[in-house]
Amino acid sequence: MDYEKIPRTHTHEFLMAKQRKIIHVDMDAFYASVEQRDFPELKGKPLIVGGQPDSRGVVAACSYEARKFGIHSAMASSRAYRLCPEAIFVRPRFDAYKEVSNQIREIFWRYASEVEPLSLDEAYLDVTYTESFNGSATLIAKAIKAEILAETGLTASAGVSYNKFLAKIASDMDKPDGLYLIRPEQGQEFVNKLPIGKFHGIGPATETKMKNLGIHTGNDLRQKFLTELTERFGKSGQYYYNIARAIDERPVRSQRIRKSLGKETTFAEDILSVPELTNILLDLSEQVLDSLNKHNMQGRTVTVKVKYSDFQQVTRAQTMDQSIGFADLLEWIPKLLARTEAGLKPVRLVGLSLSGFDLPVVDEKIHPQLDLVLSDNNLMKR
Question: Where is the active site (predicted)?
Answer without folding.
Answer: 122
